[in-house]
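Forwarding these from the shared drive since the link keeps breaking.
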Amino acid sequence: MLFRSVTRQIRFQSSTAQDAVATAQKSTPQKFNKPKRNRDLYKIMEQDFKEITPLLDQMELKMQSRDNIYLKDFISLGHTWLNKISKVKNENSINAADHILFERAINTLHENDVLHISHFNRMIISMIQSKKFELAFNTWSKQLDYFLQNEDTFISAMDEKSGFEKATFYCNAFCAYLLSLKESGAKLDFQLAQSLLQNFYFSERLLSIINRKLNLSEDELNFIRNEVNQLKSQNFDINSSKHLKEITKLSHNHRLIPLEHLIDESLQKFKSLDKLSEIKPKVFETYMIALNFCKRQAKVVELFNFIQTNKLFTPTISIWNQLLAAQITFSLPNMEKRVESVWKLINKLSTPNSETFSIYIKNKIHNGHINESIQILNDLRKKNPELWNDQLKSQLIEGLMENKKSDEAFKLFKVYSEQGFSPSKDAYNKVLAHLIKNNKLEESGEILDMMINDKNVEPDTATWTAIIDFLLKTAQKSGMSSEKTISELFTIMNDMKSAGVKYNNVSIVTVIANLMRNSSTHALGLDILTEFEKTGLKLNEVGYTAVITSLCDFGDLNNALKYYSRSKENGLLPRAYRYNHILKGYRSNSDIEATKKFYETEIKPLATTGDLSSLPNQYTYFFLISQAIITGDAQFTKYVIKQLDEQFAINGDFELGQQLPQILNTLKGKGFTLGKPLALKVDKAISANKV
């Protein structure tokens, strides 16, 4: 009965809670310190206890005397309390599992409505470590309603974006439930398992991270994996829009290994069920488009052969087009012959469409066959005028530009424009860049006016680069001030917005970041960014990274630190690739104290977090040790080595990469002392390189 109750709770309440969490997460992250009102509680925990009970008694008594208790204060305080319990246990050799000792504290936090999922996760983890799987799941089930009705319990400043604690909350329950079945031999409740899975994305990576604390055996992990695979198989539809969207998403995020794995796994599932004949052509079209986008042409050919070998269906023209596109991007000596071979097959076994001609012409132009391309397109225009579209016109213009026939391309561009031509984004960009490069500013202005009013074009980085280049050259010619240049840029953007043209902030920020790298345009780039922020522009993960990187590359560390702090204030997690750029900026700087302060306050506290992308990595210490060597500061060198030693104490599997072992080995030869685990790792790496 408990399992059914949990299923209902998750199904009917979690969606509401998730919406509330999403809304709450948009607010400014809370900052957790030690408010004056909680000093008395912290003072209790500073006392020396020999037993757990007096600690619990004093904390409960003090909390009962309070009129106002706030969850935001108790996220940090609750962990301090649990840590104190563990410390008393270890110092006094108390023989009891953490979950037994934590239970009373967890109940007290619950009674006062200040229990956070991160506190509760620690108790469930201890139960699972002790192999109390059924107890863990039953305890979790009883508390579920409390968390779903109190959405703030899912939120914390450190965890705001990653949602790691929430994923841990559901994944712990899922693992405990499955392993309780293994232990008891009970039958899986499919509805319950599915309702748990809907609340987090189960992956091998998540399981691996969570198991660092759960300490499950390989046998237990394999049991979980097998159950998950069976669950996915029972509910999997290869033709569903959900599956095809997942393929497209993996492709756009360039996650090549998961993409290929999902494709292979999906086809294998349907093959094992003898259901290959049920797969629709749309599935293979989506697979092949995704793989071509990621430049996995060999896999595209493999899928085409899979269709033919298994006699699934007659390939559609979309599938033929993807096969043709795959041949064009193959880096093989006989590439042109392969393209011609597929082109002949398409004409024999299918009917080419505009996309087919576009792909084929692109190849012809790329290989310098411009006259032949023009002839093919002229024939097409006469014989199949319905296929002669803007895409092919743009293709021809782009081809002429690539083959240094820019004047011809511009003439065609003007002729087509008079006929109602809507150029592609690339055609606009190439023609505009060519005109600006040759200081044909009047013609550039005409093209720019066309683009501003073309709803079908979404400006990208190349577009904004051309626009800003145009404004800079115009300013140089007319003596326009920096303020006027920025004003003109915003006028162009507002005109685009009024005309219904869509543009994304990432491409604009990328161009601004490029301006900030150059000494002659650095100040202008900063001014544009400042004006953008005044209009309400909110930088995202990519934007902050681009800005911080460019500022560090230029050597403007003050502004880099300002934007790094601002990224955290806006709720972004401190990623290693972002703070490493700041360390790289400090590398040739003699201000050792500034580097140490940044490391101590911003990086060192992250060493024990659960989010892998926030953890210090080999590049963190490479940049630190590089600064120590460049400045010749022996004390700072010792400091960096000490930090690495501490890192190895936390994570014995810490990867040093290729350069760090060489540097550390040299330093060891100069008399610097490495901790034993670090020294062994360095010796092993050096020996491996000698083999």
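-- next protein --
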Amino acid sequence: MYIWEKCMDEMKSGECLKDCCKEAVDAYKKKMLLKKSRRDSWFGWTLGILLTFLIMFGLVPAGWYILLVTGLCWIIILGDFVKWMYAKK
């Protein structure tokens, strides 16, 4: 059982301590951040890596729009890495 689930149960019964509630909220936010990151970014990861390899092997001409999309996908990938490192603390 997660700490936030335990504290939510304590909150319902009216026995929750302030420190426990703060820990519960922090743990819940980190859990939701990781869950949202996994759900929202699979497209960015897939497209970014695919376009990178296609450009490297010359299968897609490296026009400004392709480089822009690839760059945006890599920003998503790096953002996910930062979120993962933050949530891991």
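Residues 27 and 88 are 11 Å apart (CA to CA). The longest helix spans residues 18-56.

- D.
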